[in-house]
Write the structure tokens for this entry.
Amino acid sequence: MKKHVLLVVAGALFLLLLPLALQPLGNAWVRILDIALLYMLLALGLNIVVGYAGLLDLGYVAFYAVGAYLFGLLASPHLSETFEGFKAAFPNGLHLPFWLVIPIGALLAGLFGVVLGAPTLKLRGDYLAIVTLGFGEIIRVFLNNLEAPVNITNGPKGLSQIDPIRLFGLNLGRPLEIGGHTLASVTLYYYFFLLLVVLSVVICWRLERSRIGRAWMAIREDEVAAKAMGLNTRNLKLLAFGMGATFGGVSGVLFASFQGFVSPESFSLQESIMIVAMVVLGGLGHLPGVILGALLLAALPEVLRYVAGPLQQLTDGRLDASILRQLLVALAMIGIMLLRPRGLWPSPEHRGGASPLPTTIDTDDELAHAGEGRPR
């Protein structure tokens, strides 16, 4: 017991001192940590849907976009610059407080999650993945085209001049002087994001051990058996979609305030696939694995910048550095999945068992179950 306490204290001290140690090397490294923490929030939310309930969602980035654009509209001058009537009431924009926007973003994203989940209740596996993928693309296309005849999202140009987070009079967008030392804005964001990640881990850990969490896992393992045991699979699936989307909405609000700018390019299909890859690579349904997967896949592309540059010079610039970096990330993922097919840090109950996702059909009984999921 004492050993565990010491490990927790050592881990907490490491996380608190890490940005202070990296800050002398430049803000870029602390910024990478900030982005990694945002991806951890997203991966923890998707883990509720995919890891616990076994619902393969490829449109998760849509909820991220909903939260980001909501904060962009409510905390920037865009609405006042676009609508004369709005400008008369709010000359400089609405600029709602962060603490008011974040629950609105979570609720709106959760509502979108339920809207997505309602028509897909009878779908499973590949069919569910295709439908959710389409939902994510629909949201992105709407964001890209809601510029005319009424300019709501500003189209491909996106929303700019978004307010930074202000906590009890502290502006996280500006450096903070403490005892002669200066904490950069990215370091302040790091501590706030870290606090939210810890809070999210506690929520997910409690969910995993609750009756709802165990019901989700029963649905993941065998939906027909779960229904036969009296579980209301419809409501439980909708709850999983809603709760997972809530995490996405909160992450979107944080992303918009951190970047100060949002555009549809930030919410592409590639982002959705990346978040799913984080959950699968780390270990489906296992919180430490999901966090590890998010950290690796968020930080790896940035670290590989230092490898892609010399390789590009060796080819006399014929290879684009960004494409080369994607290739290296893909090769790393393939290698890891070949060596660790259950993920880098799988859940103990799946280390030697079957895959938790109902994507492989082996028996006649499973074939019959899969037939129920086909669109009619």
Remarks:
- The CA atoms of residues 220 and 280 lie 15 Å apart.
- The longest strand covers residues 176-178.
